[in-house]
Amino acid sequence: MVYMLKRPELVLPAGDLEKLKTAIIFGADAVYIGGKEFSLRAYAGNFSLEEMRKGLNFARLHGRKVYVTVNILAHNRDLTKMPSYLEKLEEMKVDGIIVSDPGVLRMANRYAPSIPKTISTQANVTNTETAFLYKELGAKRIVLARELTLEEIGEIKRDTGLEIEVFVHGAMCVAYSGRCLLSHYMTGRSANRGECAHPCRYRYVLEEEKRPGQYFPIEEDERGSYILNSKDLCLIEYIPRLIDIGVDAFKVEGRMKSPLYIASVASVYRQAIEEYIATGEAYKEEELARWLKELSRTASRPFTNGFIEGESPFIQDINKTVLKDRVAFCGMVIDYDEKKQMVKVEQRANFGVGDEMEILLPAGDVYQFTLTELYDEEGQAIDRARHAKQKVFFKVDVPVPPYSILRKGENLSA
């Protein structure tokens, strides 16, 4: 039987050029990046215009797309430089511009008229009328708010005919689609301008005004949950249903996450999309379990399905759960010599002889081995790769392509 399901885009975050390349090699159809200005991730590496051009060239070489975030909630002082920046994006012919501010959308239509416009999740689109408004203002795609059910997503797609993008994986915010005031109030760093200090992850106690110095821990019982420390979103099991209702793009959060996270998540969701497109059948239990195990190895908190099935009392991780079987990013593969069966790696974390290691390959396969020998760039045997971005070599008896990820369990020896 031939299935005529539409293949949605898999859109991965890229905080810098290395992460952009990793995302594309591991299966992303598109990446979203930020420039040095006007982007809601002030502490990601972000891209200079020259780096942006390099990223575009790499993406086009592989037939992939690059979307640029211009998604700040702008003040008047931000508007002075914005026309020239938008004109440069137009000149480079980026594949899309992501905005949240209607005024920025208006300027993007004026100064980058040929570039498709996407409305950011920061715009909090939760209904058909709002989606129609942005369509009338020139938007081609909308990244819906995370607070929608599967039924609501389907209704907006069906009624508007717009391209619909949905977050399927990554960190959730305690505020409505990331519109949080805690960070600015407590630290002076505005979440709405890309500088979030993540105060929702802090540990809190209560203090009653007539009992100064007496602190009461915030706890939870079976009857209720609290607003802080959301679990991580994971909708891997909902991929078939999201494809069925016509979602055009699946988005992953994490421009500040490591290449390990990018590679792992991209490869799993790529496999899940292709499996359903090829068969049209529900995932096998063992298949879903394998994907969830891989995703959990790079997660920072337990998973939740968010609001996809409606309101849930189980979105917060109030106990700050310590996850098992996590892996650490130890290095990025640079090259492989087939004759010598030697792999060249750029170190990212301490590892050495005797460690149980893994290499995550772009196709999603995981090669496990015990490291028995290690050499520096002069060919001298060493016991550990201790120095940041140190180039080291070791034997691997399977071909390992560039951008493969070297990792090890965090509970193993350092």
TrEMBL record:
GO terms for molecular function: peptidase activity. Residues 327-407 form the Peptidase family U32 C-terminal domain. The keyword Hydrolase applies. Keywords: Hydrolase, Protease. One of its GO terms (biological process) is proteolysis. It comes from the Bacteria. InterPro entries: Peptidase_U32 (IPR001539), Peptidase_U32_C (IPR032525), RNA/ubiquinone_mod_enzymes (IPR051454). Belongs to the peptidase U32 family. This is Putative protease. It comes from Thermosyntropha lipolytica DSM 11003.
